[in-house]
Write a structure and sequence with these properties.
alpha+beta, Rossmann fold, 2 domains, eleven-stranded antiparallel β-sheet, transferase, 15 strands, Tumour Suppressor Smad4, elongated, ATP-NAD_kinase_PpnK-typ_C
């Protein structure tokens, strides 16, 4: 068995050292880990998990400290460890990316790692989105797809279409399409709904709309949701998850549709989805 680990931090190093006593470990970039064909993967941090989604990982992945919406093991000090008590007279209450895990965090990580290596876990299937621009595939997204006006204090006009019908047209700084996984991120910050994983839908939310009565929408993900820039008053950029991928010109179709999934490991220590 090979366990993959993606992420660069003291927490990732601790997980690698702990796992090496039990199994073969590939601790590397997302692309290198996927190439190693691991049986399971630990992703430390949100960026590591998003990178694995881009690489088309087939193995189940345990997120660690990835934030709300992703599940996995949280190292938030406000949450208790496996024993229900995070107190420790010799450790600080929380760790950072550059510090070793505290005693309570080590206990939580160790318990989750044991379950992962023993294959004693469930999985949640998280939607991946395929994104095309004018018919050309530009990449997948696990959390969200966003068109955003790059210049400060400049707005543009956007249109949203679903199943061949226009859903809305509005002036705003941008528009975001969120999967259920990403609905606790940009979509929520823009006033959108929280979407349950496995519901087969995406949330579409204007970002800082010019009008005060602009709605947000829950649309089916099994057919393309099409975004267009109707009027460009500043450069409009396309973001997929945590990456800016290109500029989008007016009247160019950006299509977003469900295309595969990523299996996220759920263990006793995993953060509940709706916990914020």
């Amino acid at each position: 068995m090979t366990l993959g680990i993606v992420g660069e931090s003291a927490v990732a190093d601790w997980i690698r050292d702990a796992a090496e006593t039990e199994t073969d470990v590939a601790h590397a970039s997302a692309s290198a880990v996927v190439a190693a064909d691991p049986e399971s993967v630990v992703a430390v941090g949100e960026s590591a998990l998003l990178a694995l989604g881009r690489e088309g990982l087939d193995a189940p992945v345990l997120p660690v400290d990835a934030g709300p919406g992703y599940g996995g093991v949280s190292l938030d000090a406000s949450e208790s460890g496996p024993t229900g008590d995070d107190s420790d007279s010799t450790d600080t209450p929380t760790s950072t990316d550059d510090s070793t895990p505290t005693k309570a965090e080590r206990e939580r990580l160790s318990s989750a790692l044991d379950a992962l290596l023993a294959r004693e876990f469930d999985t949640d299937s998280r939607t991946l989105l395929a994104v095309t621009v004018d018919g050309e595939r530009v990449g997948p997204a696990l959390a969200d797809v966003m068109l955003i006006t790059a210049e400060p204090a400049r707005i543009s006009e956007y249109a949203v279409r679903s199943r061949g019908e226009r859903v809305a047209r509005f002036r705003a700084d941008g528009v975001v399409v969120s999967t259920p996984t990403g609905s606790l991120g940009y979509g929520r910050n823009a006033g959108g709904p929280l979407l349950e994983p496995g519901s087969g839908v995406v949330g579409v939310v204007p970002v800082a709309p010019f009008a005060v009565n602009v709605d947000h929408w829950v649309l089916s993900a099994d057919r393309p949701v099409t975004l267009t820039v109707e009027r460009d008053e500043g450069e409009v950029s396309l973001l997929l998850d945590d990456r800016t991928v290109r500029r989008v010109s007016p009247h160019t179709a950006v299509e977003v549709v469900e295309d595969g999934s990523l299996d996220v490991v759920r263990v006793t220590e995993s953060r509940p989805f709706f916990e914020r």
